């Protein structure tokens, strides 16, 4: 089950379509859907989590807590919509595309993909692009 929670003024458009896409992303990686919660928040909220749980004193766009058991994907994915907007501007893409990329990124981590190091990062970007195309989002 895919859940969407809001700790900011942001609200996701087309929740059902996005949930169906996330489900398809999971199946495309030969995984089973468990309980996945997306929590949309602002920089301040995510920064506090980053400090408290990871001891990192920096802003980030996403923090994911992986509760995957075997082949069943479970976890909490916190996304700063402020960071996503800034990244969209920096990368010259729409907010929608960058948000979907970050949402897929969290799921891909749960599927075992890493993004530390050049080779892993290239594979992660390739997988993100593949998953974005499943939502028919123009990049």
From TrEMBL:
Q: Which Pfam families match?
A: YbeY
Return the similarity comment. Answer: Belongs to the endoribonuclease YbeY family.
Q: Name one GO cellular component term.
A: cytoplasm
Native organism taxonomy: Bacteria, Pseudomonadati, Bacteroidota, Flavobacteriia, Flavobacteriales
- Protein's job: Single strand-specific metallo-endoribonuclease involved in late-stage 70S ribosome quality control and in maturation of the 3' terminus of the 16S rRNA.
Primary location group: cytoplasm
Q: What is this protein called?
A: Endoribonuclease YbeY
Enzyme Commission (EC) number: 3.1.-.-
Q: Which organism is it from?
A: Flavobacterium frigoris (strain PS1)
The answer to whether keyword Cell division applies is no
Its GO biological process annotations read: rRNA processing
